[in-house]
Structures are given as structure tokens and as C-alpha cells.
Amino acid sequence: MKQNIFSREHIISELPQVKKWDVIVIGGGATGLGVALDSVTRGYKTLLLEQVDYAKGTSSRSTKLVHGGVRYLAQGNIDLVKEALYERGLLAKNAPHLVKNQNFVIPNYRWWEGIYYTIGLKAYDFLAGKLSLGKSKHINKTKTVERLSTLRQKGLYGGVVYRDGQFDDSRLATNIAQTCIENGATLLNHFKVTDLLQDDQKQIIGVEAIDIETNESYTFSSDLVINATGVFTDEILRMENAEAKKSVVPSQGVHLVFDKSFLPGDDAIMIPKTDDGRVLFAVPWHDKVLVGTTDTNLDDHSLEPQAQEQEIEFILKTFNNYIEKKVTRADVRSIFAGLRPLAAPKDSSEKTKEISRSHKVIVSETGLITITGGKWTTYRRMAQDTINKAISLKKLPKKKCQTEHLEIHGAMPTENRENHMYIYGTDQKGITKLVDEDLSLGEKLHPRLPFLKAEVIWAVRYEMARTVEDVLARRVRALFLDAAAARDMTAEVASLIAGELHRDEGWKLNQIEEFTKLANHYCIDSNTVIA
To answer: Which of 41, 242, 431, 465 has the largest CB neighbor count within 10 A?
Structure first.
């Protein structure tokens, strides 16, 4: 029987074969996965360790946009926009099953906005060059209302339509992880780095880590360790130097998810000016509409950040300013918060929306390389810059980057997105086969959502999912789409995973308890924290 390369048992059994790694990456979000993919495809022996699950943190909590950043253009940050638009184009080619060419409409409620935004977005189109997703254009009031039937019509002059990318973030993370493994990298989730190892000269020579499932400790050797842990960057930096200065400031972004009836049709809304100065998006996503985001400075961070009351109110109020069919708290299907790892400001005068979103590669005296900042759209470029930096420091032999035109696992052209299974790309066949072999796996997990039992089996067998949360939060997006429905599925999903991983009743009950507690935080009434 052919060995399943994604099996945890198989991956762990092969660990002793490598005495020394060329590259060890800490962190399995967009950045870490990108670095591992860049590293392994250049031919370096690569190990990635993630303390919980791929994209558990920030990388599963984005606004689901692959974009150049219209607001950075307004800030005059041309280079950042140009780089992001180039990467947007590559991602649309390399993962076409996940990246969708999305129309956005900016509604105009002042006479001059049509001219102003049309000019600005023509510049946006121009910067995209050959990788443009389509031209922007001005449309009159009638056409704007045709496209956005629930939009507030009072005072409306018209709209400006432009194109950007829309995607599923944690699905992309899963597919990048699979691509890494297919190319020979060793990846382990639920595997926490507990210490950095240094020699007598205080140079990094490896890491200590623990398998969270078995509690077994491991030591891994490498002269090159890359810290790609996002908002947890400082925890790793303090392992090498207890006095390390704060390098990252978490900024919280909150999103609310509503039924599609509040924004029917295929177009997204972009609101360029809100009360707090941020852009607000309302984006169709998996037959729901996702609205966000906020920008709240936080002093600390956690794996499960909580929305604050004023963030929820801000989104409800701002969205309601633009639509005729008003949303209420009762209409919120799910609420999720994510933390952006922004570079710590030089002084208190810098606001988070003014702190650069561009990435930084930092080299410590110990030789530890840290990559911070950036965003999903530029994950590939961030990885390229990180490995290039390691080469320039003579930590790796010089080899050319291979990821620019590298297809991600599952890649296939996808026009029809009616069936929710489109996100699996070429893997759809495998899931269909599971159902053919056992018809019960073709049953839905919940009447309100399209996900099938077969997807749970597939997630565990081929997508490294180990827990109910891994499946319902990041492999199928139930928790982010309808938290109450996800909570209702818990026992069924726990049973399916337990059968697949040979877990006992105690494990199952523990999973049900943990996930139920988590899902409550995604339901609006349990979530709100008065700030």
C-alpha cells in the first residue's frame, strides 16, 4: 500500500533520518508556510514546526482579500501597492481554485467622489500591469443599485467598480502546507518550540520542541532558524535574549458575518472613509457576507482574541449607514477577531493605520532570522526575501527562488463556484471517491451549511487536521460562517475524527467540551467584552 505522505505517524517516523536541517522554520501561518515552501523548492532540507495548527492565528482571520491595498495608494505608498498587485496576480495564477476575481463597488454619496475614485483606481489598474484583474470604471446610480440591491439610495450619485482578489485564507494555508510536504519538506502542527539552542559563541544551533499530542521532547539541529511567528515574535526573541525589546505591536481586526440576503449578488462593497479612518469592506464569502475590519491597538495578545463591544458597534453602525435592509446583533452568524503583527512604533505619535504594512527581515546577533509584518497577499515575496537574506549571510548555498510560477496543491481553473467543493480544486475527485465507497459520508453535517462528513475524513487523512477545531475552523469554515451551526456539529465531527485517529471516548468528550467553549466566543452574545 502506498505510504500517505501527510500522515503524522509517517512524518514523525522519518525525523531521525535527518541529523541536521538546512532550515528550521518556527510558525505555520502564511509567513512561515511561505518560507518553508521557498526553502524546500530551492533544495534545502526544511523543517517547519507550528505550536497549534496551520493558520490558527492571524492567517485564518483576514478579510479574505488578495489585494494591492487601495488605501496604501491613497497614502502614497506606491512601491508597497505595486509589489502587492504583482503578487496578487501570481497568486491568482498559482492557486486559481482559491483566488477569485472579485468586483468591488465604491458607492458615491458626494458628487466629486466618482471623479476622485475613478482617477485613483485607474492608477491602481496601471500599477498592476500585465497581471491586472480587469479595468475599473464609473457607473451611474441606476447601475449601482442594479448591482447592489440593498444599498442605501438616498443621496447616492453612482459608484466606481474595480477588481481585486478574494480568497479563502486557511484553505490556502492548508494547500501550501501540502505543497511543502509534496516537495520534500517536513511539517508538523501541534508541535511547540520550547527553546532555542545556542553554542558557546551564543550562535543559534537548533531548537527544542515538544509534540503536544504525546508530550515527547525533541531536539533539532540547524545553523539557520527562522522566526515567523507573527504576534508571537517576541516570545521567540526572548528565548534567545530575555531582555529583548518589544518588536511587534498587535493591532486587532474584527469581522462580522451575515447571511447573504444583506448583500445579494456577486459584488462587494468598499467603504473608503469610515469614522475611525479605516476602510470597511462587505464581501461575499461562501454564500455569506463578511463585514470588517476594525483597527484597535492592544497591549497584549492571545491565540483567541476577543472582539470588544465598541468594535462590534462600529461595524454594525457603519454597515447600516450604507444599506437599506438594516442588520442587528441577532443577524450576526459569526464574529471573529484577528491580530496583525505590526512593527512596534518608534514613538507614541505613530498610529497603527500609519505603521507600515511592509515586511521586515531582522537578523539577531545570535544568527536568528525574524520575518515580521506584511500580509497574506505578499506571503511569497516575504518568503523569497527571507531566504535571500539567509543566502546573503552565507547561511545557505546560493540557489534561485522557484516559487514565482509554482502551482499550489489543488490548483485548477475554477469558473463555477456554485458547488462549495470548488475550494478543493483537484482534490474534489478524492472526496467524491470517499463518498462512493461509503454513502453515509455524503451526508451533510448541518442543514444550514453545505459541508459533508467526507470532508472531515479528508481533512484528517490528507490535510493534517487533528482536532475538531482544526476541521471546523480551518479545513471547512463552519465556525467562521455560522458559529451556532458549527457548535451543533461538534459531537458528530468528534466521532468521525476519533474513528479515523483511533481515539477513545475520553478524547472525544474533551474535544466536544473544548470546541463548544470556543464556538461560544464566535457567537455574538457570548463574545462581547466591554472595553
So the answer is: 465
Q: Which residues pair with residue 444 across a beta bridge?
A: 452
Q: Which residues are paired to 252 by β-bridges? A: 296, 339
What CATH number is associated with residue 186? 3.50.50.60
494 is in which domain, residue-wise? 426-522
- Give residue-wise pLDDT tens across range 209-229: 999 999 999 999 999 999 999
Q: Please report whether residue 475 resides in a domain.
A: yes
Query: CB count, 10 Å around CB of 233?
Result: 25
Name the domain count of the chain: 3
On whether the pTM is more than 0.90, the answer is: yes
Q: Which three cell numbers, joined as nine digits, stand for 183?
A: 516537495
Answer whether residue 280 is part of any domain.
yes
Kindly give the pairing relationship between strand 204-211 and strand 449-452.
unpaired
Is omega for the bond preceding 293 within 30 degrees of 0, making it cis? yes
**What is the tens place of the pLDDT at every residue in 266-298?**
999 999 888 777 789 999 999 999 999 888 888
Cell of 463: 490535510
* Burial category of 37 from C-beta neighbours within 10 Å (exposed 0-12, middle 13-18, buried 19 and up): buried
The whole-angstrom separation of Cα 242 and Cα 530 is: 33
**256 and 241 in one domain?**
no
